[in-house]
Specification:
single chain; mainly beta; 0% helix
Length: 351
């Protein structure tokens, strides 16, 4: 049986589009309409082109290894406010949203790192530096796999599209944007100069103003390098349809980098495997649960875009396991979370 990150036996389903209006909580408030995907799109460039297809990868034999402590992703020092420059360009009204482009520039003399996410946070300020009451969308679709960090070279810049909707207050003369430079509770920030702009219209007077942004991308290929966590990898499991009680369960896990970022593997990530077997009364019971370190040393300390690797792995089906439907759950651990999948197999009696 084959399963992907979502635990499905088929290919990953396409993510549905989010409706323009949603109901929020018991108050039933409508969210302001969002601009279409073409509004204010940032230049479609990055350090590495998204691979059109995966290259065949190595098959790595089973070697049990103990789990290891996962340190923070090795990168350059964090970008600091004094060395960063933020540039904002408003592009005007598009379908009830004012759209624009924001760029963060490394004005220092050394490389520095920034966290990146599919939904960047920001604040809008008026010409006096006062924060405008603009909130992020109440609901967003689940993000696809994405990079988690960018290392900017001196003079390198990242760019993102921003949008602003439903302004129902007096119009400011100019609007600036303030961006956090880290994920800490009190991060350093970088603020653009105020730029004259006509605020968006007010189709929903009883609703708050809303601001949204697309993920940052590199403005030029030479600007820097994107990095992703192990949790950004595509995961697929292969498990035999049937295993005899008391026997070793030989299965495979394939990790693939379908993005346009590099996934460092130093050290190799940990993984957890769980066998869920039938117990008394037909209830699921956990008979095998282990954590290991992945034997990935032969991959050159990173999984590059378009690359994949398959790991031969082993779990043990207890001799007292009950014959019948069972499942194997497999989770890879990143530095800030984990992803996993599961697939079913059958436990059979000895012949």
């Amino acid at each position: 049986m084959v399963a992907n990150n979502d635990g499905h036996m088929t290919a990953r389903a396409a993510m549905p589009l989010v409706a323009a209006l949603v109901l929020v909580g018991c108050a039933g408030r409508a969210e302001p309409p969002r601009p279409d995907a073409s509004a204010g799109t940032a230049p479609p460039v990055s350090m590495i082109r998204t691979p059109p297809r995966l290259r065949p990868g190595p098959v790595i034999p089973w070697r049990p290894a103990p789990p290891v402590r996962q340190p923070p992703m090795p990168t350059a020092p964090g970008c600091r406010g004094a060395a960063m420059r933020t540039e904002l360009t408003w592009q005007g009204l598009h379908r009830e949203a004012v759209t624009g482009t924001v760029q963060l520039v490394n004005g220092g003399t050394v490389e520095c790192s920034l966290p990146v996410s599919p939904y960047p946070s920001f604040e809008l300020l008026d010409e006096r530096g006062a924060r405008l009451p603009v909130m992020p969308p109440v609901s967003r679709p689940a993000p696809p796999p994405h990079p988690s960090q960018v290392v900017l070279r001196p003079g390198g810049r990242v760019t993102a599209a921003v949008s602003w909707l439903n302004w129902c207050r007096p119009a400011p003369k100019a609007v600036a944007i303030r961006l956090p430079l880290s994920k800490s509770a009190r991060p350093q920030t970088s603020t653009s100069a105020p730029v004259a702009v006509t605020p968006p219209p007010c189709p929903l007077p009883d609703q708050p103003s809303m601001g949204d942004a697309k993920a940052f991308t590199l403005a030029t290929p030479a600007a820097g390098t994107m990095y992703g966590d192990a949790t950004s990898l595509d995961l697929r499991l292969w498990v035999p349809r049937s295993v005899t009680v008391g026997a070793a369960l030989h299965y495979r896990a394939t990790l693939a980098n379908r993005g346009n970022w590099i996934v460092p593997l130093r050290p190799c990530p940990n993984y957890a495997v769980t066998l869920n077997l039938l117990g008394p009364g037909g209830h699921w019971t956990v008979h095998h649960q282990r954590r290991y370190g992945l034997a990935c040393e032969g991959l050159g300390r990173a999984l590059w875009p378009g690359r994949q690797a398959t790991f031969e792995l082993v779990a043990t089906v207890p001799a007292d396991a009950r014959p019948g439907r069972s499942s194997l759950s497999w989770t890879i651990e990143g530095r800030t979370g984990s992803i996993g999948t599961q697939t079913e197999f059958r436990v059979s009696r000895r012949a």
